[in-house]
Amino acid sequence: MTTILDTPAGAASTTDRNVAGFDHLPTPRELVGAQPLGADRARLVERSRDEIARVLDGTDDRVLLVVGPCSVHDPDAARDYAARLAAVAREVRDDVLVVMRVYFEKPRTTTGWKGLINDPGLDETFDVPRGLRVARDLLLDVLDEGLPVGCEFLEPISPQYIADAVSWGAIGARTTESQVHRQLASGLSMPIGFKNATDGNVQVAVDGCGAARAPHVFFGSTEEGRTAIVRTRGNAEGHVILRGGRGGSNFAPADVSGAVERLRAAGLAERVMIDASHANSGKDDVRQVAVAREIAGRIAAGEDAIAAVMLESFIEAGNQGLDADPLVYGKSVTDKCMAWGDTADLLREFAAAVRAARELRGATADGAPSAGQMNV
């Protein structure tokens, strides 16, 4: 139901002058109650959150790969992708911890489609209640494939509807310096990555991790949808994501070393995630494959500050406009993604890289199981 604001002619008003109306949402409790997580999925989320945290701090020697579409627009294609990814994730699980990237909120530099939650019909009808239901339903199905889920958190209220099903979260390059998002991250229950800013500034991401680690008090909402004062304990599992910037890429060894120095100065874990897409590959899907392959080679050679890698991947390579008629199945409508075949190959290459790094360290020379093997 929409409440339309209509100020009578000649009436004075100092509020809502640029607001056309309000659409009512179900409360988070209502939506979650209708689409419950359930005990088995909850165990997967809890276990995977712990495993992700151990990979990020180095006590689990696997590499974390967050892999999936730039932004989900077709839930059926995303389910198809999840089934493919789950099969390879099981194959490489001794060496690689795979999390499916399932992004529902698309930050925009100016304007454009804002993601599946905001506009699930891709038609500017903005049926947000439907978008929330569709998004949550997809998350539950991905978990049923045995895959942990990663999401970017953009709206400060939407996590109430989906965060119980999410194992890893990100704060994007456009919001990493936002106090609202740092406060949000301080109360979230999973490891959170802060991307460097769009101009390439890494210090703001380090500062974001430090700010999220602290307790905060801020305006928010409850599961009943009531406004409230939120008090958080702080989230100690923040980490930096290097995604490049307007000045170019920042995934080279010198860039990683520079980020580690900043993390050390801030008293944070000296490990990073590298986003192989965005400015690190010039948003080119072919270049992204080459960047990912280079990173895998560096992991194999013993560069242990690289804890995690993000890949933008879908069934088909490249991207398409929303005006394509018909839309190509399994092809991104936002940033270019690498094809599924390249993705499957890269997952196996990263697994081989981790095994090579173990061999280089002599980690299993005495026959003791690796951290990754102990978590299986």
Structure description:
The protein is an alpha/beta fold and 376 residues long. It has a single domain, classed as TIM Barrel (Alpha-Beta Barrel), CATH 3.20.20. 37% of the residues lie in helices and 15% in strands. The protein has eleven helices and twelve strands. It has helices at residues 28-34, 39-57, 75-92, 128-144, 159-162, 179-187, 203-213, 253-265, 285-300, 340-361, 371-374; strands at 2-4, 21-23, 63-68, 96-101, 149-152, 168-171, 192-195, 217-221, 227-231, 238-242, 272-275, 306-312. The strands form three sheets. It has an eight-stranded parallel beta barrel with strand order 3-4-5-6-7-10-11-12, surrounded by eight helices. A two-stranded antiparallel ribbon has the order 1-2. The protein has a two-stranded antiparallel ribbon with strand order 8-9. Helix 4 links the parallel strand 4 (96-101) and strand 5 (149-152). The longest helix is centred in the C-terminal third of the chain and has 22 residues, at 340-361. The protein is globular and about 70 Å long. It starts with a strand and ends with a helix. The model is unreliable at 371-376 (pLDDT under 50).
Note the run of SSEs as H and E: EEHHEHEHEHEHEHEEEHEHEHH
| Tally of DSSP β-strands | 12
Shape: globular
pLDDT < 50 stretches: 371-376
Q: Can I get a quick summary?
A:
With 376 residues, the chain is of the alpha/beta class.
